[in-house]
Amino acid sequence: MGLLSSFSSSYFDGGCFLKVQNEIKDSNIRQFLLRASVASSTPKSLNFSEMKAQISEKFRIGVLGASGYTGSEIIRLLVNHPNFEITLMTADRKAGQSIGSVFPHLVTQDLPDMVAVKDADFSNVDAVFCCLPHGTTQEIIKSLPNNLKIVDLSADFRLRDVDEYKEWYGQPPQSTRPAERSSLPLIPLIKAKLIEVRNIIIDSKSGVSGAGRGAKEANLYTEIAEGIHSYGITRHRHVPEIEQGLSEAANSEVTVSFTPHLMPMSRGMQSTIYVELAPGVSTQDLYQELRSFYENEEFVTLLEKNEVPHTRHVRGSNYCFMNVFPDRIPGRAIIISVIDNLVKGASGQALQNLNLMMGNPENTGLLYTPLFP
Amino acid sequence: MGLLSSFSSSYFDGGCFLKVQNEIKDSNIRQFLLRASVASSTPKSLNFSEMKAQISEKFRIGVLGASGYTGSEIIRLLVNHPNFEITLMTADRKAGQSIGSVFPHLVTQDLPDMVAVKDADFSNVDAVFCCLPHGTTQEIIKSLPNNLKIVDLSADFRLRDVDEYKEWYGQPPQSTRPAERSSLPLIPLIKAKLIEVRNIIIDSKSGVSGAGRGAKEANLYTEIAEGIHSYGITRHRHVPEIEQGLSEAANSEVTVSFTPHLMPMSRGMQSTIYVELAPGVSTQDLYQELRSFYENEEFVTLLEKNEVPHTRHVRGSNYCFMNVFPDRIPGRAIIISVIDNLVKGASGQALQNLNLMMGNPENTGLLYTPLFP
Amino acid sequence: MGLLSSFSSSYFDGGCFLKVQNEIKDSNIRQFLLRASVASSTPKSLNFSEMKAQISEKFRIGVLGASGYTGSEIIRLLVNHPNFEITLMTADRKAGQSIGSVFPHLVTQDLPDMVAVKDADFSNVDAVFCCLPHGTTQEIIKSLPNNLKIVDLSADFRLRDVDEYKEWYGQPPQSTRPAERSSLPLIPLIKAKLIEVRNIIIDSKSGVSGAGRGAKEANLYTEIAEGIHSYGITRHRHVPEIEQGLSEAANSEVTVSFTPHLMPMSRGMQSTIYVELAPGVSTQDLYQELRSFYENEEFVTLLEKNEVPHTRHVRGSNYCFMNVFPDRIPGRAIIISVIDNLVKGASGQALQNLNLMMGNPENTGLLYTPLFP
Amino acid sequence: MGLLSSFSSSYFDGGCFLKVQNEIKDSNIRQFLLRASVASSTPKSLNFSEMKAQISEKFRIGVLGASGYTGSEIIRLLVNHPNFEITLMTADRKAGQSIGSVFPHLVTQDLPDMVAVKDADFSNVDAVFCCLPHGTTQEIIKSLPNNLKIVDLSADFRLRDVDEYKEWYGQPPQSTRPAERSSLPLIPLIKAKLIEVRNIIIDSKSGVSGAGRGAKEANLYTEIAEGIHSYGITRHRHVPEIEQGLSEAANSEVTVSFTPHLMPMSRGMQSTIYVELAPGVSTQDLYQELRSFYENEEFVTLLEKNEVPHTRHVRGSNYCFMNVFPDRIPGRAIIISVIDNLVKGASGQALQNLNLMMGNPENTGLLYTPLFP
Tell me, what is an example of a GO biological process annotation in this record (chains A, B, C, D) (predicted)? Predict the structure, then answer.
């Protein structure tokens, strides 16, 4: 049973969680909101040729918050997508402007002008990506038509909102965000009980685009170039979600050390993860587990032994490269994984999710080769 | 008559020059070598459905010099190309290595290992891209089978070699290189006699990838970051070719001032061009001429008035953005054009050429949206 | 007669212009405001030992607008200055904060906290540097005590304000700003009638710090890194001042073409200047004129022939490196000069001016070797 | 008792180790070679005025390996040093060249031309800095005159060479290198038994200049910009020295996890260190210990609580900024320290050492304020 049917089966069994094992999409995908009415309205028995027919008409996609970096990135991916077309883009502060005036690199694309979200016409939209600034998503999503499919890239539906969220939507949200890509190598190793769940240390190095396009002194070129610094030490907003994912995998509460660093690069995130091996386990065992766990995952690549992942080798692509190395300290290992934070860490993953929701092969429109140098 | 048939007609009339007017492909394309035997063996009357049938088998492509930046870029473009597939890659110093060990960003691709050019088997190759280091191309091309189609990205067949070249190949080479993309806005304006051909000043700013992947002290990160400098002042190797192109357009000998600058960026080239207007001509006239000249060219975009082209807005794409501005000094204008030097300035343009040679729409496999930020 | 006495003699002859020939300090220095009462109160006959005695007490310096980049740079230069000490720093939005919280790189320095300019106590200040945002300087300077010496780094006293300025201060301002460093090589060549004053084309490449520390989307790391673009084409605010300086040198009105480009570097400015030689003049003549004109100027270095100036080779220093090259087009030359825009282009030049005003050797506290790499 | 006398007393007590407590100069300084004859010839009772007199003649300094980055950095620091002057510079491959042709940023300095080390005349040299490539230092140092004072910045005298070293020099070398600056915060905490010596994890982020000026593909701008990667995982050459320093502090064998990362910045190194607190110890205890340990150390700055060290805030300076933060995982802490790898991590520290050897205040010529932005 392929990924798609695997997905479909759980999907139409009344659940809203994606049950594709290998990339742990059930817990790792970004916020993925499906109202009951939407889920039930999706045809259960759509076969591939029916899907193709449907696809030939293309699904109509809205991008809410199209003037930020995750917004422009989802647009970049959508303009060449064979099954989706953009029919709506909102950006309150840029309402009335063309995409070319907001993002000149998209000037060659034939796209609708930006509108304010309050003026948006959702009648010709099948699904939306929410790329809204933090703190604004909840109100807007509440106001959306019931039949819309929604993939949320924002960080609004925090874990602490679960109860409130349930009240509104009748089900818990699936809530994960880019940083949790740090968990990609950890979850299978924890599930297989190959590493200890205590003292997991994640030293993360992130590109500046993760901070968004808002004008802040701290993100000026002059404040970022040619240096590095940590930020949000011990209290980064991604930590609770990482811990929730790992806790589920471990069936026990996991607390991690997570220290992000801001780097002079626009895109990319490396997680250097320091772990303790379970008794009797070797680094080779970790390598084998990751190899078998991800062997059918197109976008997760375990490199050859000793090959070091570089962020610049996944730039602009939906790939996650990872590897595992023995530590000098006996009984420990070092895991390194890299992604493009705007693609696998945000818009690419979101599109991968919508592909699955809409019945496309999950790699549709995502096979961009990394741009190097 | 569309681009393709326009191309075809001149192509099969026994000439080897591409006669597509608007992007001045006859003079601006990169070295484009077709031996007589090759040209005549191409079916004259292939209609589109026949081409499609042929395409379904895919043309088999070799990349000579696959371990450099133009080599890896042509590979990046080819791996998603619907009509071409790579069946041969040569790199003498990396012979025997996999693409993933030479270019880890391509590790997910299923590609043949590198071989030495002397060991290459051309029996399963229809066309090759020559991405060889300067000074080595000529000997290698001489040794290639006669029936190969060749697109040469190197700078070997200099203008001074024309006579020698003719002796070997029975026809003159078409020889243009990335820098001559500087000529894209100039040639139509000269042809239309809107600007003077004297005192044309081209101030060019280039990314470091143009210097190749060879290990040189001058191109170390530490020697390039956070600074700018000019190089090759007045004697850059691209000058003769620029001057030849402009001279042809002017029907008189043109000498230009060309000063390249090396910038701390991996990709991109901006040409800031200072020109004198012909008597009675306004900047608006230049704008109109460029608008009409390039209106049907998918990859050349004249921006809206006052919009400034940025190199980062074409990064990773085959687009050229340009615009024209009035100078403070009456009777003068400033023209700015930007490209990605590895795409429109090298591998993308080369692929555009092979598309035409092979009867594909010229944009096939080239519709990458720029990667920003 | 040395620089110092040269300066003194003109200084106390009732004029306010610095009459040091070689670096054209009379016209090229930044805004240099001296009220009559100040000038006359300065002892005319101070000899060097008297100065030393005075110096042993150190002059007390205020920095107005200490939270911006020119402010922090003047502080960097002052903390190691043997004759000046900072006794006041103002920054309205950061009032009450320590220097370490505003500029952590200065945290080891023992400096007063920032105050709002309206709360500043000027009773223990001998001279101030005005590093205020554009548009605010004029009002503040009017309110300063009469006995303060002032060096203004802002761009407020524009040329058009001269009449109004005179009304207030009884004398014209000396008004020059960083960009006019572009004029350093031009003025002696114009004075010597070695180049034509028509069609002077200045293609300028600037670091981002010149745009200040204000939070603007356009100056985010993600919007600047790995690219280049022009800005303010033909209407940059520095143009009138450049033209005024050149017009004075030429004794006729000069209009220049000036196109600035924003580069991914924090510091540095290169001017690539394209000029027409006067009849019978050679590039070698230009070289000789610059050699003799600047041979006694410590901070202006004409490089050896063919050596290309790099911005990174003057980073953090008060040096200007320049050179002249023959153009391919006969009768033309290319002049390249580089500075650190925050030092020679702003705070270093301002300190050089205050050194002269206070009777110090002009290089006092300015002999920082460039920081490379 | 000040640092100087503290140093002197141990120095002349027949030992060769610097016994300045706080910055742990006895163990942390770089290779510091003093032959017995040299040590004994140094006057024991030199008072400050005698030193001044001696200083007025300036010590004559040689720089061996002047064409690399640590070489140019020691030159940058020496040209403004009040007590030292450069009288010899060697660089075998650049023999006969001027400093300006090898390092244009030093072109304004009046310095001797480079010579081959075999042609060097040591008769007018009092002390040398060895900035030689790895693997060449030992032979050259053996051939030096006996009366030379030597500060070695290379990595040649590895720990395993101690016995051989002793044979030659009659005393053990003091052998520490830049990376061991990672130990600055660790050693006092280990000595005070505030942290466990097991599972110390050092995640290090380094600038590219640490890799030297040699032409390597891996260090090209295009291979480094806009990305990050780990290198030398678990087997970096600095590890043994770090472990030796910590083992000495702990009086037991310490094994650390040390993972360096190469960053797109020319200068700077951040160490993010993850430690386990000893039972009953709080992060606050660590902070207090570091505060008291380093309070008299001019170049080691413990920041205010919660202030995060940035590499860019020490660029070009000899400062080390550090701070300590509580981890999310109870019983753990995160220590962050930053330096400029070329200054505090190499040439600045070396000069600090020579200052002490020569009886200067250790900060002489080292009070450069960081260059920001």
Answer: L-arginine biosynthetic process
Give the chains touching D; criterion: ≥3 Cβ pairs < 8 Å: A, B, C
Pairwise CB contact (< 8 Å): B303 & A226 = no
Show residues of chain C in contact with A223, CB under 8 Å.
Answer: 221
Q: Are residues C330 and C199 in the same domain?
A: yes
Tell me the pLDDT tens digit for each residue of A44-91: 344 444 444 454 589 999 999 999 999 999 999 999 999 999 999 999
Token pair 């017009």 in the structure block, residue: C247
Q: Categorize the per-residue pLDDT at A241 as very low, low, confident or very high, splitting at 50, 70 and 90.
A: confident
Three-state DSSP class for residue C182: helix
Report whether pLDDT(A233) > 90: no
Rounded Cα gap, residues C206 and C204, in angstroms: 6
- Sign of the CA dihedral with A358 first, then A359, A365, and A367 last: positive
| Cβ-based contacts of B209 with chain D (< 8 Å) | 222
B135: left (phi over 0), alpha (psi -120 to 50) or beta: left
- Dist. CA C121–CA A53, nearest whole Å: 78
Cβ–Cβ below 8 Å for A372 and B103: yes
Residue B239 and residue B256: Cα distance in Å, rounded? 8
Could you tell me which chain B residue has the CA closest to the CA of D105? B223
A228: its two tokens: 């590095």
* Pairing mode of beta strands C269-276, C332-339: antiparallel
D370 part of a folded domain: no
Give contacts of C215 with chain A, Cβ < 8 Å.
215-217, 220
Look up the CATH number of the domain holding residue D321: 3.30.360.10
> Does residue A234 fall inside a structural domain?
yes
Partner residue facing A216 (CB), from C69, C209, C215:
C215
> C298 with C186, same domain?
yes
A141 sits in which H/E element = helix A137-142
CA distances from D370 to A44, A223, C154, D30, D312 (A): 65, 14, 24, 22, 8
What distance in Å separates the CA atoms of residue B200 and residue B189, rounded to the nearest whole number? 12
Q: Do residues B117 and B205 both lie within one domain?
A: no
- DSSP state at residue B195: B
State pLDDT tens for residues C240-285: 888 988 999 999 999 999 999 999 999 999 999 999 999 999 999 9
Q: Residue B163 sits in which domain range? A: 31-175
Task: Report the candidate in A282, A281, A263, A285 with the shortest Cα–Cα distance to residue A272.
Answer: A263
What are the structure tokens assigned to D17, written together? Answer: 């180790």
Number of domains in chain D: 2
Same domain, A201 and A317: yes
Rounded Cα–Cα distance for residues A219 and A205 (Å): 15
DSSP codes of every residue in B210-247 = GG-SS--GGGBHHHHTT--EE-STTT-TTHHHHHHHHH
User: Within a 10 A sphere around the Cβ of B197, how many other Cβ atoms?
Assistant: 22
* Residues whose CB falls within 8 Å of the CB of residue B87, separated by 6 or more in sequence, listed in order: B60, B61, B62, B112, B124, B125
To the nearest 10 degrees (0 to 180), the angle between helices C348-357 and C3-12 is 70
Contact A209 B109 (CB under 8 A): no
Among A106, A267, A372, whose Cβ lies nearest the Cβ of B105? A372
- Partner residue facing B105 (CB), from A109, A367, A370: A370
Please report whether residue D308 resides in a domain. yes
Residues B356, B353: Cα–Cα separation, whole Å: 5
State the pLDDT at residue A163.
57
Structure tokens at D252: 């037991």
> CA dist B240 to B135, B237, D116, D231, Å?
17, 7, 41, 44
